[in-house]
Design goal:
Layout (H helix, E strand, L loop, with lengths): L23 H25 L5 H27 L3 H8 L5 H9 L1 H34 L4 H29 L1 H17 L2
Length: 193
């Protein structure tokens, strides 16, 4: 009877090259950026939305959720994209390709800003807008405050998570096209300065 050979797990290479190390300065920048942006936007949201009608508040809520989904798509696409086709485009001087290559080169920072910083800020803002909507509905239409709060939180969470789930599938499928599109936007905005 033959002895079975011991199974060896094959080594899997990373698709991204380079030596990425933890950067304490990037952590400090991210925390500070998130804190100040979140505080400023929350203050503006709370102070400006008190005089807004209910329909405008709902529109703003959906816009903020949509912005969070869009940036989640960008962050996911940057981490899934392959840089070889974009390097080829950059060598042919295709407009925006160099910016796209830079996004992939700094994919961990790009994904952190898009998915975490902007995504979390959009979550905080959508929660603030949801709270204002709940308060308005409870006061003006005599809705049950507890039930309305639960339903608003569930609706905001479902729209955000569902939208991001669909967005991640789209981002992984079309990662290079999305990163190139964002690089093209950076190119267009960079030229106008």
């Amino acid at each position: 009877m033959k002895k079975s050979k011991k199974y060896k797990r094959p080594k899997v290479k990373s698709t991204h090259t380079g030596n990425k190390k933890f950067s304490p300065s990037w952590l400090i920048i991210t925390v500070a950026l998130t804190f100040f942006l979140s505080a400023a936007i929350s203050f503006l949201t709370a102070s400006r939305l008190q005089d807004v009608t209910l329909s405008v508040a709902f529109i703003l809520l959906f816009v903020i959720i949509f912005i969070g989904i869009i940036f989640d798509i960008i962050g996911t696409a940057v981490t899934a994209a392959h840089d070889a086709p974009l390097h080829a485009m950059a060598s042919n001087r295709v407009r925006g390709a160099r910016y796209a290559v830079k996004l992939i080169k700094h994919s961990e920072k790009t994904a952190n800003v898009c998915n975490d910083v902007i995504g979390d800020i959009c979550g905080v803002i959508s929660g603030s807008i949801g709270t204002l909507i709940v308060g308005d509905l409870a006061i003006s239409h005599s809705f049950n405050l507890a039930l309305t709060s639960v339903l608003a939180a569930a609706l905001i969470s479902a729209l955000t998570v569902g939208g991001k789930a669909v967005g991640k599938t789209f981002a992984i499928t079309n990662c290079n096209a999305i990163v190139f599109f964002v690089g093209r936007l950076f190119y267009l905005f960079g030229r106008k300065r």
